[in-house]
């Protein structure tokens, strides 16, 4: 007899630590496309996508087939011990797809945090410098180094110190709540230029190996920099010999209508980290960078037992085929246009929406109690998530103030599923809007 949600929750509370939090009381039995079905048969429209992992949808047939075919051949050999073609083929394709014309190389790992750790290892090795700069509102993982780079204290860092040394943080390009009290564009993109001043009072440029930035901050609230931001930051980095690492773990793999979100800004980073939707739900991450950088660490200095697992590589190759050959990137662009129009209309109707931001279908709503004071409505964002869940829609809140609702639905979502989900979201928005 299959256990129900309540029984499974009792077992979860007994056998799994409370620190492994759950955002939903529903235990999933199956999922396809943009629909999840729990163990009691209730369907949920998925606007969370496994926190940005299911861009090609749950159990995409081509991904499932690729995994099955590879599993019949072999599951693991360890690429260091007995290499295989899938790893090389995936690295080659990522090198060819990465922004810019410079020759690239790619190493594969297991998770986003592991990708970030390796990118920083490489940057420190190449520059012979210890310092790393990250941004306020940034999120880069939960391991010691990546937790240190992550901005938000609770729940990610609280009680888990001491943290890794030589980590520094600068304000992000949060135009809606400018840390310098300026307004864009009259500010002249001050947040980017302030990086040069940072080297005077916090860490010397000559001691800085890299700066790591998400093109659109995920957990930080989908903060989206102005069009000139990255060009300015990259210019400062080049002037001082600092490597620019772009963290595409949540924003990459078609989430913004482009394979890599940084393509919206038209720059070529030194290093790029990808994970989440890269392998359609399988654990896999990649560090792709300019070959002159990636080739420098000595043999044995990079890698790991499971990095570039054969099943995950097969899944990732199928994911890239889906994007590039099956038109999913075009579908992402169209989805983004639909969502932008719907949210712009909602913003006109509901005072609680202070800002709509993001790119393509990677969009978020910042909820406020007053548009003039921008007082955050974190409690109402939490209530909105609960209201939507009760009506059959899964969404996520985020942001340093907990007042942002982010949308990460699978890009394969049907028009009917999208309309149902948006109707639930708007109905629930109307309810919380009445409370401000």
UniProtKB/TrEMBL annotation:
Q: Does the keyword Transferase apply?
A: yes
Name the SUPFAM superfamilies on file: PLP-dependent transferases
Q: What is its EC number?
A: 2.6.1.19
> Gene3D superfamilies annotated for this entry?
Aspartate Aminotransferase, domain 1, Type I PLP-dependent aspartate aminotransferase-like (Major domain)
Q: Which GO terms describe its molecular function?
A: 4-aminobutyrate:2-oxoglutarate transaminase activity
UniProt cofactor(s): pyridoxal 5'-phosphate
**Superkingdom of origin:** Bacteria
Q: Which InterPro entries match?
A: 4NH2But_aminotransferase_bac, Aminotrans_3, Aminotrans_3_PPA_site, Class-III_PLP-dep_AT, PyrdxlP-dep_Trfase, PyrdxlP-dep_Trfase_major, PyrdxlP-dep_Trfase_small
Enzyme class (EC, first level): transferase
Keywords, A to Z, come to:
Aminotransferase, Pyridoxal phosphate, Transferase
Show the NCBIfam families listed in the entry.
GABAtrnsam
Regarding protein family, the annotation reads: Belongs to the class-III pyridoxal-phosphate-dependent aminotransferase family.
The molecule here is called 4-aminobutyrate--2-oxoglutarate transaminase
């Amino acid at each position: 007899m299959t256990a129900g949600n309540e029984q499974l929750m009792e077992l979860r509370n007994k056998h799994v630590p409370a620190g492994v939090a759950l955002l939903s009381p529903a235990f999933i039995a199956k999922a396809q496309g943009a629909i999840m079905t729990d163990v009691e048969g209730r369907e949920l429209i998925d606007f969370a996508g496994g926190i940005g992992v299911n861009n090609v949808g749950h159990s995409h047939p081509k991904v499932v087939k690729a995994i099955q075919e590879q599993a019949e051949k072999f599951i693991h050999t360890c690429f260091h011990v007995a290499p295989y073609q899938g790893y090389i083929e995936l690295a080659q394709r990522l090198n060819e797809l990465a922004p810019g014309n410079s020759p690239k190389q790619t190493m594969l790992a297991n998770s986003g945090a592991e990708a970030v750790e390796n990118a920083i290892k490489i940057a420190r090795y190449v520059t012979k410098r210890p310092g790393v700069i990250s941004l306020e509102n940034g999120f880069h993982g939960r391991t010691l180094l990546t937790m240190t780079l992550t901005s938000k204290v609770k729940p990610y860092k609280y009680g888990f110190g001491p943290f890794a040394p030589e980590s520094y943080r600068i304000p992000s390009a949060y135009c809606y709540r400018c840390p310098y009290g300026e307004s864009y564009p009259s500010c002249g993109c001050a947040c980017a230029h302030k990086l040069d001043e940072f080297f005077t009072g916090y860490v010397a440029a000559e001691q800085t190996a890299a700066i790591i930035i998400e093109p659109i901050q995920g957990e930080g609230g989908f903060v989206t920099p102005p069009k000139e931001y990255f060009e300015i930051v990259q210019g400062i980095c080049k002037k001082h010999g600092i490597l620019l690492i772009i963290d595409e773990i949540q924003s990459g793999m078609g989430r913004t209508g482009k394979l890599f979100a940084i393509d919206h800004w038209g720059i070529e980073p030194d290093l790029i980290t990808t994970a989440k939707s890269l392998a359609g739900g399988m654990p896999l991450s990649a560090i792709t960078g300019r070959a002159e950088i990636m080739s420098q660490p000595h043999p044995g200095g990079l890698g790991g037992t499971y990095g570039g697992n054969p099943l995950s590589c097969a899944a990732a190759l199928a994911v890239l085929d889906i994007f590039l050959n099956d038109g999913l990137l075009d579908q992402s662009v169209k989805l983004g246009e639909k969502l932008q129009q719907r949210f712009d209309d909602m913003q006109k109707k509901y005072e609680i929406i202070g800002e709509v931001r993001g790119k393509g279908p990677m969009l978020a709503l910042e909820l406020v109690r007053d548009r003039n004071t921008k007082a955050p409505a974190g409690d109402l964002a939490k209530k909105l998530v609960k209201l939507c869940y009760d009506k059959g829609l899964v969404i996520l809140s985020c942001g340093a103030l907990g007042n942002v609702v982010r949308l990460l639905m699978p890009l394969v979502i049907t028009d009917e599923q999208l309309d149902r989900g948006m109707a639930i979201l708007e109905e629930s928005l109307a309810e919380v809007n009445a409370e401000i």
